[in-house]
Write a structure and sequence with these properties.
Helices cover 80% and strands 2% of the residues. It contains six helices and two strands. The protein has a two-stranded parallel ribbon with strand order 1-2. The radius of gyration is 19 Å and the shape is flat. The N and C termini lie far apart (62 Å).
Amino acid sequence: MEKNFRFIKPVIRILILLFYLAAIFYLTLLNREPEPERMAWTTLFGSYRRAWEENHTFILWGLIDNVIMMIPFGFLLTWVNGKIRLVHTLFLACVLTVFIESTQYLTKLGYFDVDDIWNNLWGTVIGYGLYCCLKEFAAARKEGRRVRCLLLVGGILPLIIFLLFFAFFLKMVLIY
């Protein structure tokens, strides 16, 4: 019975990752009406600047959505293959994001925005870090040892930076 479960567990993980990817494609490509024209925002942090200068909370929430959308990718990819490194996870996230952004541009189902690529990569790093933290807690518990705090800090730091930055940014946009 345990042999069968060893086979089923990776298959279930892969199916969950595939379901997540299907949801991403649905939300970013299939669930949209075409725009009247193709547009591309190619200035890094241009969306941040627009949100700030125009007090535009819709743009800000779009930036936050792009980070949150990719947290599961960083987590699930690492969960499926526990030996994958951050650099490989980021590469795959970059390929996925550039594919989505390019497809949105070519099909007019959205705008190509380099800030979306940046935010998606940031979300991937957060997901990867959260997985590493949970893995460390599980390993420490299993091995009966103390948790390595430095590893936890490294894993949770991207999330803390995200929360602090966007809390500050949101406060500034809403106040001014």
